[in-house]
Amino acid sequence: MDPQSAPEKVTLLIIGSGPAGYTAAIYAARADLKPLLYQGIQPGGQLTITTGVENYPGYPEGIQGPDMMVDFERQAARMGSEIRFGMAAGVDFTGPVHRVTLDDGKEIHSDAVIIATGASAKWLGIPSEQRLNGYGVSACAVCDGFFFRGKEVAIVGGGDTACEEALYLSKLCTRVHMLVRRSEMRASRVMQDRVLITRNISIYWNSETLEAVGETRVEGVRFRNTQTGEISLIPVSALFIAIGHQPNSDIFRDWLDMDPQGYIKTVPGSTRTSRPGIFACGDVQDRIYRQAVTAAGSGCMAALDAERWLSHKGLH
């Protein structure tokens, strides 16, 4: 084999960055595991497309999402983690040495692997959605609802997540306009009932969201009634997209146990997956909380779980 193409051998490989991956790297480096971290297609994860973060402990004045991820990365590097740009394109978890192929064709062999590839919000696919992302368009009410206290907002979706976020926003905002594409919700009956009895939530059935209106920030939302064809405009200060998330787990589908939505299953109370030596943390295995602080916490767990497993196997 050409020496230049020979696989690189490491003790611990971390796939993905963001709060989970960087925290795992911090703890693993402090345990002298000499972790190698590949940042993925979006270094820093979803927080790099978030503006103000005010709910993460330790930042009393708040911080911009990209700046926060720079802090995380710098701390991981200072602890001794090797951080590289690149993403995993394929894996082979057949044997005791775990093989990961990168997008440039390079192959990494690792005794243990921590998966921190996160999840991506599902978007509507309308042009204004990305143009105003961070300027009133958001995929996380818990993250960004605080910035729109005392204002009117809109939310798109009809599942449990949409109902949960509409109820959360109803406690902060004067009115929540809920746009549901069908004539009924997909949410559980109990969640629907809670929304229906909340006085400041207005529901618009059979509504297709057309665009977020505004040049530099959201000033309204335009939608169409799919039965009558009537187009309406509601003045709002924010548009929350709550149509679900997609875990970034496709390359692991043939190797690890997952739920029907593609979230990697972990042993309760741990980050262990169905394969020995493979650990998962952050939003790729968390379909419930999906917060930066919970992702960071699970990254810590993954590093500790990996260190104990490596020690037990005599690999560290």
Textual characterization of the structure:
The protein is an alpha/beta fold and 316 residues long. The chain folds into two domains: 3-120 and 245-312, FAD/NAD(P)-binding domain (3-Layer(bba) Sandwich), CATH 3.50.50; 123-241, FAD/NAD(P)-binding domain, CATH 3.50.50. The chain is 24% helix and 26% strand. It has helices at 18-30, 65-79, 127-131, 141-144, 160-170, 189-196, 292-312, and strands at 8-15, 36-38, 52-53, 63-64, 82-84, 88-92, 98-102, 107-115, 119-121, 137-138, 152-156, 175-179, 201-204, 207-213, 220-225, 231-234, 238-241, 245-247, 278-280. The strands form five sheets. Strands 1, 2, 5, 6, 7, 8 and 19 form a seven-stranded mixed beta sheet that branches. Strand 14 (207-213) and strand 15 form a beta hairpin.
Short description:
This protein is of the alpha/beta class. It has 2 domains: 3-120 and 245-312, 3-Layer(bba) Sandwich (FAD/NAD(P)-binding domain), CATH 3.50.50; 123-241, FAD/NAD(P)-binding domain, CATH 3.50.50. It has helices at 18-30, 65-79, 127-131, 141-144, 160-170, 189-196, 292-312; strands spanning 8-15, 36-38, 52-53, 63-64, 82-84, 88-92, 98-102, 107-115, 119-121, 137-138, 152-156, 175-179, 201-204, 207-213, 220-225, 231-234, 238-241, 245-247, 278-280.
